[in-house]
Amino acid sequence: MATDLMITLDEKVLAGSLNQAIEQNIDLNTYIENALNKTLLKPIEPKKPLALDSLINQAIQNSEKKASGAEFHINDVCSDQIWEQLSSGERKRLGRLFRQEVESRKIATFVRRTSANKAIYKRL
Fold this sequence. Notes:
mainly alpha
């Protein structure tokens, strides 16, 4: 079953596709369909889930190294590389779990939120 599809292509992409179709001696529709099939049939590597428990433990260890009275936010005690790998939902979950842990262990206390909505903690 075929379905008609209208798409807008950049002129360079269209020109390249036409050239490839001509070289392969096929029509443009067949070339685009083949290109899509090749792309769609490639296995997509699943994103490796990060263990939030180990991230929280690392963040807690780093927060314990802060001087008493020092203010910090979770980005200060997590590596930037790991933080960037987290999805928005994972960051929120990590933040909630981190707050629960540092407050229950009496390591730090929540002070306020920044204008960017980042939680600020104070080392006890």
